[in-house]
Write a structure and sequence with these properties.
Elements: H1 5-8, E1 15-22, H2 23-27, H3 30-39, H4 42-53, E2 62-71, E3 77-85
Antiparallel strand pairs: 1-2, 2-3
């Protein structure tokens, strides 16, 4: 999904890459599901594995996953990621 024109003005000049993955659309598309393992970058597969480790299932809990990469003053990349979706229940602690 493209960025709204009103949001483009807020994108910092240091931004190198912005990627959005609509997991709801992926779930509803048999073609996308068939291609998912073939075309998904390894770092996104690693992130899904890490999310599963903390109880977040990409198939059940994610609606949208967004990534941004920024160039730092030292010419290195600094990645950021955020998600939108339902949160799995957290265990409660007793006191």
């Amino acid at each position: 999904m493209p960025i709204a024109s009103s949001a483009r003005a807020m994108v910092p000049s240091e931004l190198q890459q912005l990627i959005g993955v609509d997991y709801r659309a992926l779930k509803d598309s048999p073609t996308a599901q068939a291609l998912k393992d073939k075309v998904m970058p390894q770092n996104l597969k690693d992130l899904e594995t890490a999310l599963k480790g903390i109880g977040i299932s990409s198939d059940r809990d994610l609606d949208q996953l967004d990534f941004a990469s920024f160039r730092t003053e030292k010419k290195a990349f600094k990645p950021s990621a955020w998600r939108r979706g339902r949160s799995p229940p957290r265990p409660s602690s007793r006191r």
